[in-house]
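Notebook p. 47: complex prediction with iron/sulfur cluster.
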Amino acid sequence: MASAQISLATDARKRAPIRDILDRALAGVRLSDHEAIALIECPDQHLDALMSAAAELRDRGKGRDVTYSRKVFLPVTNLCRDRCTYCTFRKDPGDPGAWTMMPHEIAQWSRRGAELGCKEALMCLGDKPEVAFKEYRETLRELGVSTTIEYVARACEIAVAEGLLPHTNAGLMTVAEMRTLRPLNASMGLMLENISPRLRASGGVHQAAPDKDPALRMKMIDEAGALKIPFTTGILLGIGETEAERAQSLTAIRDSHERHGHIQEVIIQNFRAKPEIAMADAPEPDAYDMARAIATARLVLGPAMNVQAPPNLSPNQIELFLNAGINDWGGISPLSKDYVNPEAPWPHTEILGERCARAGFKLGERLAIYPEYINDDWLDPAIADRVRAMHRAIRDRSVGGQT
Ligand code: SF4
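Predicted complex, structure tokens below:
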């Protein structure tokens, strides 16, 4: 894979002019890896043209509507067997802040979220802690389950009972585990982060993170598609990858979506340095790294894809990211912090709405499942009526002029 990547980067130097690639993307032509790499690596003088083509494609598919999901973030457990060097979320048992949410806590947070208008319960947690920690296996036993995913299913039941729609991102899951969660989830997710196996090698950010093997992650993303699960994935910028590897990650996601049609949104997320992590001094991607990746994502993935960037990680770049082709801001919570980036507060939706409006966009709420997936092909019958009723309520409120 590494030598294939090098040869693609080398070949990309003999590439077509950027304008020709942009015109091909605007004409609906499927871009090759070489073309995607040429776009993301384009010289600065082409950046305006890159963003403007991406924005034109976004406008064709999404118009000037931009969305967000009102959510409560439930860190079911922050214990994790992996050790990604950029992570501040994970803990070992006994660490300050180590937390496995008890059922009553999940109920309380879900209820409070529902009272504040949240529709989504984001179940976000560490990967397979029961494999690594005896103390946690004991916790699961006391809770009457034997695996984390069994406990996530319980957490989803609680959130559903409180009126929310779960979206689970529990790391790598098996087909059987995803089958168990499908009736309890509006959608699920797994960040690809990056397709490059280099990041798992010695000295890489994922050296001690077996669940970050990109082949395993692509396998799960494909399996979710085969199970007809509306799925969220994305890339993480600034973890040691090259620009070419960012582009190749986007084409890999596009290819999976072509096989199954299940990728409902693609997140372009930037690494943020924090004092307590091993990568405390690593450089963060700048706004233009993000704009290049967002625009390339739009041009690779096409007008129909939902392309998202988290507004709390780049609060000064709202207008830039809209101009680069996004149409979604992801989950925003009035209640719980972003446990993955706890230093980065969510924007107030009123203020975000005003900034979008000044840039010529209308901010609106969506569910954890996008409207294009609210049909019998994608919805599990167990949750379909709830999803449809909540979607109608959001739509009626939006017609009434509220976001
Ligand atoms: S990023 Fe996810 S998988 Fe990696 S250490 Fe943190 S919680 Fe675990």
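Notes: The beta strands are 65-74, 120-124, 165-169, 187-189, 231-237, 263-270, 307-308, 328-332, 362-366. The chain has a mean pLDDT of 95.
Next step: compare against the earlier run before touching the bench.
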